Amino acid sequence: MPKKYATLIFILTIFQFSISCFAQNNEEKDWIFKNSKTLSEMWELKEEYHRGTFIITSYEPVYFTVGKFSTNTNKFPSSEERNNFLSEPVELDVVEAKFQLSLKTKVFYKALWGKADVWAAFSQRAYWQLYNKELSRPFRETNYQPEIILNFPLNFKVLGFTGRMAGAAFVHESNGRSDPLSRSWNRFSVHAGFDRGPLQIMLKNWIRLGGSNDDNPQIMDYIGRAEAKVTYDWGRQRFYAIARHSLRFGDKSRGSIQLNYSFPIVKNFSAHIQIFDGYGESLIDYNHRQTTFGVGVSLIN
């Protein structure tokens, strides 16, 4: 059996053992069904949830994927129109580790005539060839994403949902590398958030800023121009899907979908399963299509 598949089977065995231990612990289950935070709580949209400025809280989920398998590893990343490609392919493992860190803080409270809050956020995703001993276990790719977010609290009904928030953001994303592997872009994004009980929907649409001369000029035709994130909480179990699309037809109709499921193992320690299909699993892979399957642990949902 090839080493890469043996590694994946080992990871899945450990994960299955964790699930079995979780299933055998039937004595106290109250902590499994404690309610997750609503949009109003997460973004402090009501006066009762306001915690003050410059207090660091979570933004996107924080997780560590112990093993992530790819059906089509990008061993020869390239960028159109600028000859940004390696001189020869890199022998990458099909199984690697991945982690995401994401934090936010409220910078201004009741700005713009008392109608909006201003947040600063930072997310980092790292793709780690943890099992690639031949290449000394390098970090294949690290993506950095700082944001400035303007949020307006709302309260209106539409199609059975309650509109909770709307706003705009400036987003920069880059991998901090030099040519030929440099990838970066800036975008202006608008968003709106809705909920209906444990179901939450976040819609985003963006335009690119300053994209006429860069290292990934057609990134929106691959990663997309819009995003829909749908989250359903059952106590502390969370199902969420993130779909992106280019909003184009024909051969430019591209995008991605990411499916996630997390459930508690012990108190605040949760298992995390993630499936991805499409373009842009990482920034270096923005124009590369693949399907990935990962298992790991989630610390903050």
UniProtKB/TrEMBL annotation:
EC number, UniProt record: 3.1.1.32, 3.1.1.4
InterPro entries: PLipase_A1, PLipase_A1_sf
Cofactor requirement: Ca(2+)
Pfam families, A to Z: PLA1
Main location (coarse class): membrane
The keyword Translocase appears for this protein: no
Catalysed reaction equations from the record: a 1,2-diacyl-sn-glycero-3-phosphocholine + H2O = a 2-acyl-sn-glycero-3-phosphocholine + a fatty acid + H(+); a 1,2-diacyl-sn-glycero-3-phosphocholine + H2O = a 1-acyl-sn-glycero-3-phosphocholine + a fatty acid + H(+)
Broad EC category: hydrolase
Membrane topology category: Multi-pass membrane protein
Localization, UniProt: Cell outer membrane
Signal peptide extent: 1-23
Superkingdom to which the source organism belongs: Bacteria
Keywords, in A-Z order: Calcium, Cell outer membrane, Hydrolase, Lipid degradation, Lipid metabolism, Membrane, Metal-binding, Signal, Transmembrane, Transmembrane beta strand
Family: Belongs to the phospholipase A1 family.
Oligomeric and partner information: Homodimer; dimerization is reversible, and the dimeric form is the active one.
Identification of the protein by name: Phosphatidylcholine 1-acylhydrolase
Native species: Maribacter cobaltidurans
